[in-house]
Amino acid sequence: MEGFGPWSLVAVRSVLAAVIAGGCLLALRVPLPARRHWPGLAVVGAGVVLGFPLLTTLALETSTTAHAAVVVGLLPLTTALFSALRVGTRPSRTFWTAALAGAAAVLAFTVQQSGGALTTADLYLFAALLVCAAGYTEGGRLARVMPGWQVIGWALVLCLPLTVPVAAFALAQEPVHLTAHSVTGLLWVAAGSQFAGLVVWYRGMAAIGIPKASQLQLAQPLLTLVWSVLLLGEHLTVAAPLTAAAVLVCIAVTQRSRG
């Protein structure tokens, strides 16, 4: 966001990731998915390709990366809930207790950081949790019947008719400051976060199940806090690492639980 506006960043990263994914699909001559899979791919595209990146980017205009990272720590619980509703998974009581404890720690941190009230950034982040959890759940379900890289690949390609014109319009309207730092960041979120990361993520969800895989993401807040300090020079409050440590304890419990 040092060099691109929020709409430009989301649209351009999606277009670049779709070019990479589409090239792989063409090179390997992957046939089109069956018609019954397209609604699920549309959910993945709406949640993971468009909704989550846009909503978190809008939140980061007024929120720090560290704050956003801990709020996103609610995503594992949200995904587990979506999985129970959509796929019918039934994790154990120990699993749900640990997942709820991690979520409670995140909520307490959010309210404390916001002075007792939710901010606009928090509303963006909570909306992002809902759409991303739906995309993760649907993608994890599809990854049982097709390779994970094809799930995110087709979802990215499916979004091209929307992301290309939005990218062109946003680049014309929002200020762009091309620096080595901003261009490197754009390439990383396109090739790494938007495509390669989701390739292995969906493969993992198919291998160990959506609920347990979702809880591994409780480690994301701590990792993001570390990188926000090292790469962005942000300063953490005492509450941020303590909250991240609490959710790490919860992740250990969920992975040892049944289901």
TrEMBL record:
Residues covered by the EamA domain: 2-108, 121-253
GO cellular component entries: membrane
Bilayer topology term: Multi-pass membrane protein
Similarity comment text for this entry: Belongs to the EamA transporter family.
UniProt entry tagged with the keyword Transmembrane helix: yes
Name of the molecule in the record: EamA domain-containing protein
Transmembrane segments: 6-28, 40-60, 66-87, 94-111, 151-172, 178-202, 238-254
InterPro entries, alphabetized: AA-Vitamin_Transporters (IPR050638), EamA_dom (IPR000620), EmrE-like (IPR037185)
Swiss-Prot/TrEMBL keywords: Membrane, Transmembrane, Transmembrane helix
UniProt cross-references to Pfam families, sorted A to Z: EamA
Subcellular location per the Swiss-Prot or TrEMBL entry: Membrane
